[in-house]
């Protein structure tokens, strides 16, 4: 996206296609909103928000970028300035909101690494390693939560209309079918694993960097969980943080399954479904999901856009 060449005219810019993708994602999201409950009741909850908890959510969200920057500093094969890397992570979130499947963040970080004396192979390997270590960190935390707390679904029968269950089963069937028949996914995953092994072999002289990167990836996930937990408490929903972790995992899966910018629509659906599964009524669940996405999607979009423009002018990417 922001990968520079020797010619300024070749610099990629925000295209009409990206704006169209964003528009389609927004349209799909607002089309789905009525299916999750009373939208007006959900927004009415915001009038009674607990401000200290909202402050905790904002602090935790800001810390996620610090953790993300630390991962890149640790994995980088050439020295990186921490504060500048932190700002790049903010800018990458803006780009990530315009393109699906995390392509925006990958492009921005790749361009940043190239600007900081990484070869094409090195930059690609570091970005790939960051993504895979993030997945590893999330899975380690997920296993730890399931084993240590034995998280169980509430015994209260959630009031979910039958058509919603049909929608969920249909979407699940489609996803499973794609995973079973799409061989390209398997080949790309194996290729990414091979790249990771190549990069990790270069860390034999500094294994602490890999351990530190995994720890920071786990901290990054934990901070997002804390953000969602604080959003739920801000709207009066008292739910165990271990269950919030599971709910956030549903949101991540939903965002990954839906090919919209930033997982728009899919993430909200996953969060709402997870919260309802653990006993929240539909209005509260939707209110929490919308507040969380307001901070992590829309606020990041605005702040990231400002930082993105500033970094572009300074030729940091």
Quick overview:
By secondary structure, the chain is an all-alpha fold. Helix content is 74%, strand content 0%. Helix 6 (120-149) packs across helix 10.
Which structural traits does this protein have?
12 helices, 317 residues, mainly alpha
Description:
With 317 residues, the chain is an all-alpha fold. It has one domain. The protein is 74% helix and 0% strand. It contains twelve helices and no strands. It is globular and about 50 Å long.
Give the fraction of residues assigned to helices.
Answer: over 70%
Quantity of strands, as a count = 0
Q: What is the count of helical runs?
A: 12
Give the overall silhouette.
globular
End-to-end CA span? 10 Å
Low-confidence stretches: 1-22, 151-158
Q: Provide the succession of SSEs.
A: HHHHHHHHHHHH
Number of separate domains: 1
Computed over alpha carbons, the radius of gyration is 20 Å
How large a portion of the residues is in β-strands, by DSSP E?
under 5%
Q: pLDDT average, as an integer? A: 76
* Helix-strand makeup class: mainly alpha
Biggest sheet record: none
């Amino acid at each position: 996206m922001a990968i520079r060449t020797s010619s300024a005219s070749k610099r990629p810019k925000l295209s009409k296609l990206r704006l169209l993708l964003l528009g389609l994602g927004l349209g799909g999201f607002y089309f789905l909103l009525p299916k999750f409950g009373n939208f007006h009741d959900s927004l009415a909850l915001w009038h009674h928000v607990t401000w200290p908890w909202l402050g905790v959510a904002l602090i935790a969200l800001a810390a996620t970028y610090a953790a993300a920057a630390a991962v890149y500093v640790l994995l980088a094969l050439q020295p990186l300035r921490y504060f500048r890397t932190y700002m790049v992570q903010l800018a990458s979130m803006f780009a990530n909101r315009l393109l699906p499947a995390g392509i925006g963040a990958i492009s921005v970080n790749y361009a940043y690494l190239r600007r900081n004396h990484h070869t094409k192979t090195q930059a690609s390997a570091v970005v790939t390693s960051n993504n895979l270590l993030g997945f590893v960190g999330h899975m380690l935390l997920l296993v730890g939560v399931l084993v240590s707390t034995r998280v169980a679904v509430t015994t209260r029968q959630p009031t979910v209309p039958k058509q919603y269950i049909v929608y969920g089963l249909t979407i699940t069937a489609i996803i499973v079918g794609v995973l079973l028949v799409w061989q390209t996914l398997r080949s790309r995953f194996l290729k990414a694993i091979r790249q990771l092994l190549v990069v990790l072999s270069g860390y034999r002289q500094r294994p602490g960097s890999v351990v530190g990167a995994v720890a920071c990836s786990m901290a990054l996930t934990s901070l997002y969980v804390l953000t969602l937990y604080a959003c739920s408490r801000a709207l009066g929903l008292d739910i165990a943080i271990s269950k919030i972790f599971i709910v956030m995992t549903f949101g991540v899966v939903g965002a990954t399954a839906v090919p919209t910018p930033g997982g728009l629509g899919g993430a909200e659906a996953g969060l709402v479904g997870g919260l309802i599964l653990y006993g929240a009524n539909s209005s509260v669940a939707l209110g929490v999901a919308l507040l969380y996405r307001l901070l992590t999607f829309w606020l990041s979009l605005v702040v990231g856009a400002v930082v993105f423009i500033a970094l572009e002018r300074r030729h940091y990417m």
